[in-house]
Amino acid sequence: MTTSQTAASQTTPPAERLVLGAMMFGTAVDEATSFAVLDRFVDAGGRWIDTADCYAFWASESGYGGQSEELLGRWFAARPGVRDRILLATKFGAEPRDAASWPASRTGLSAEAINAQIAGSLRRLGTDHVDLVWGHMEDRSVPVEETADACAALVSDGVAARIGLSNHPAWRVERARRHAVGQGTEPFSAVQHAYSYLQPRPGVRMGNHRFGRLSDDLVDLAAVEGLEVWAYTPLLSGAYDNPAKPIPELFDHPGTTQRLAVLDDVAAQVGGSRGQVVLAWLTARGIRPMLGGSKVHQLDAAVAAMALELPAELLELMNGVDVTPPSA
């Protein structure tokens, strides 16, 4: 964590450190529940809401996305003035072109595709700008310099305040940033990847994103360059605290056993749940956790975690556990 990040964490209201992920709003999470969670988030002082143009194509009847952005647009319309109170992020590049052949067929990150996608997002959201826009998943059919130029143009045109990359390897993030700096245009200033206290076994691929996990290279790049880091799925979809949701098999190694023991110890000492301690740990590392909860009580627990201060000795204890098993 940089000095500026440390100072910010000490002055930022707790709920502002959290991102509310709206991925399943409008599909698996109905409108009434979505509105209730959104309202509670704003009332608690939360600001960042994250969505994407492809959310949630896999849960929709059509096989295409847009439902989350459309729901947020209706929420903004029903809550005059709320758009000015929140910071809105959306993503492009992963919406299916052909619902039957994703991820091979998707919109991608060419300049033409970016311009068409952001126009659709703004229309669905009912706004003229977003506060952060992400390249959702890498597109190696397009030079990353083209993507960087198209995204920088969104900032110069006032369509986006900032730009970031999600699910990209560190070298492509840095190549895009060096290109922008050389051109005198807006560089990518944030990265978004999956990250939690537990770490998967080495070499395990997660889902459809080859580089979806936050790597040490990205952590180092972010620290050196002052990039903001967002972590999705920080609570492993509830597996830390919900007995009905086992820890995913890809985390099955001795390092997990050791980390869970430490997590239980710290949780008992601070009077929080496992998940709350994980969120507090991420925040202490300068990482902004993203909550994908679908219930108001889940949001309340996450907001409470943002106010949880972990003493230095407990952070040292948590950080001192090996994250992966020893080599054979």
Automatic annotation (TrEMBL):
Give all residue intervals belonging to the NADP-dependent oxidoreductase domain.
17-318
Protein name (database record):
Aldo/keto reductase
Q: Which organism is it from?
A: Promicromonospora vindobonensis
